[in-house]
Amino acid sequence: MRQVLDLVRRVAPMDTSVSIFGPSGSGKEFVARALHTLSGRNHGPFIPVNCGAIPRDLLESELFGSERGAYTGSVKMRQGYMEAANGGTLFLDEIGEMPLEMQVKLLRVLEERSFTRIGSNDPIKTDVRFICATHRNIEQLVASGQFREDLYYRLNVFPITVASLEERVEDIPKLIDLTLERFQEQGFPHLPQLTDCAIVCLQGMRFPGNIRQLRNILERLAILYPSRMIDEGMVRSIFRPIGKVSPVHETESLRQSVNALAQINLEAHHRNQAPYRLPANKNSIPSAMESALASISESIGETAIRYAETPRGIDPKAVISKADAFDLREYLQEVEGVFIRHALEDAQGSVSKAARTLGLHRTTLIEKMKKLSLEEQ
After folding, report:
1. Between β-strands 114-115 and 124-125, what pairing exists: parallel, antiparallel or unpaired?
2. Nearest CA to 20 among 161, 130, 142?
3. All domains of the chain, ordered by start, with CATH?
4. pLDDT per residue over 274-300, tens digit each?
5. Could you tell me the pTM of the whole model?
């Protein structure tokens, strides 16, 4: 954030257009307000406009205003945000949601520094500094034709990127202090205090909603536990993380669990013991992942040996006898997949290195990965 604020201080005195990038709730509007406050326009208005929250049919009239009689129900002249921000700053939040037809008109305003109200032919000069923000990847939108390339380069003169809260957890203690101070200013009579363990607990949580989510959690704590000392247990009792688990992490966890179970069953096979199965009693299962494994351990227990053994250690009679309907092609694909996964794991994901380990051409390995649906994994 020090780097971000250094950029803010450098560009704030200029009238340069600024683009702010970062995930939702990370503080993009805070950065925009800082730019306005530190600029020579701080005596003028700061007008925030959420381009994604206004219906596309109304966005033009909201931005540019309208003359009396311009459309049905228009009984008087209406000033738009562009005119209201004259002498100050217009903050176009979620610019990536702006319809293409409006992007053309905004480009004209940026180039000519004038606009016309709906229902009028008289141009109105405007003295506005433009700041825009988005959580979306604008370059991808440009590539897919959803955002005009000329407007992107016109707005993206000075980009500032705000990191997610999970990338700067060391900021959380200061953010907690700042948020509680603001609660006090807003009239919260009795604020709680957080123990060091509670703060460390928050630093270890997932925050897909970023600072906005952290603020909501602190407000909930302030309402539930006024004047109390908040410990780790209180934080965990009200924290409900939102968003999906990363498919990469979920797949890796499942893979490790299956490999561990396969190794156990391989050892059991060598000792002529029955395959291991996870306990059916859910109270004895320590995690949701093991709970999921319990439901599939029946099939894993029977097939784990095939995945864990290497071709040199295979007993064909044992393998064929354990299968109700043995399919050599499917079995060889499974064995091939095991070798490719291990090679990629040892190569830390480098396809070229894994190909050399397996004695394959890189293109051949890529084709096999596609065939085995390993490419995305």
Report:
1. antiparallel
2. 161
3. 2-163 (3.40.50.300), 166-238 (1.10.8.60), 245-323 (no CATH), 327-377 (1.10.10.60)
4. 655 544 444 444 454 455 455 444 444
5. 0.60
